[in-house]
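Quarterly update from the structural biology core.
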Amino acid sequence: MCLECLENIIKALGLKIKEQELDRDRYMKELLRVEEAIGGASQEDEAKIAAELRLLEAEEAELDKQLARLEEEDRANTNEL
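Predicted structure, tokenized:
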């Protein structure tokens, strides 16, 4: 192989490497953007879900109290009969 051919091959490979580096950089930027978007949404969603869970737990506790009161009334009514 002549020196000129070798230099041409090296130039071509250098261009391919630069193209691949640009593709890698674009991919990494997009990946970071997507990860940030997902991470932000996940944190917001998690906070909303946690708040909703607290409300539902409070509602459940209130319903448990009502159920206990109704069961007590039912026992009292059954005993009167």
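The chain has a mean pLDDT of 90.
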